[in-house]
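Work package 3, deliverable 3.1, input record:
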Amino acid sequence: MFTDEYYMKMALQQAQIAFEKEEVPIGCVIVSNDRILAKTHNLTETLNDVTAHAEMQAITSAANYLGGKYLQNCTMYVTLEPCVMCSGALIWSQISKVVIGARDEQRGFINKHLNLHPKTEIVVGVMEHECSVIVKEFFKNKR
Amino acid sequence: MFTDEYYMKMALQQAQIAFEKEEVPIGCVIVSNDRILAKTHNLTETLNDVTAHAEMQAITSAANYLGGKYLQNCTMYVTLEPCVMCSGALIWSQISKVVIGARDEQRGFINKHLNLHPKTEIVVGVMEHECSVIVKEFFKNKR
């Protein structure tokens, strides 16, 4: 039951909440041993803060929940490939696994030849279509 | 009077406050038209949060002060070269100028072949010696 798709669907629900707030629709969930530590969505417009990406909030929130800054035994589900900033935060967090929905060829960390922490497993393409469509839909409406 | 050295000294005072809290001693100041918008220091240990670098707090704080997320006409003074995470945040902020004290060859963004925003001017090496010594002193005490 608690598959990667299960948690990515939850991250997508967060992206949908962002969409309704006119935020770029990206959602994120952090899970440890099937316990949900954080559910977040992008809030850069609402908070007037470029650092308020879903992933940044999730890292802070999960660390707060755990009472420690390292996210060992944690998995992040994120609907869009993290940017340079968020990949840097993920490196510092030493998170165990990152599951990515859709690629972001232009802004994502992969094409910048950045790596996450050596301990971090990366999975790409879980519910890729749905994760990609919501972002495309958002920018289509903006034009 | 309001030279780069003047503001870097202020950033160094912030690094000193971090040192006294047993935080990696890095300090940061953001200035716009000789108005100080933010003075921050690294708080990753105190807040149990890998994202609580001096630069991240300063970007959030300055944007809050300005009531907008872009840091146009702003200069950041930071005692140590920003990491991947902080350089990513600086890109999003479109800040006008970043003045760096000492290089961080291992963790800094420059050796990762990352660029800041095309609009951002970068100055490296203001009070380099003092900015470097405080970090070395900190890690010497830790061993």
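The mean pLDDT of chain B is 97.
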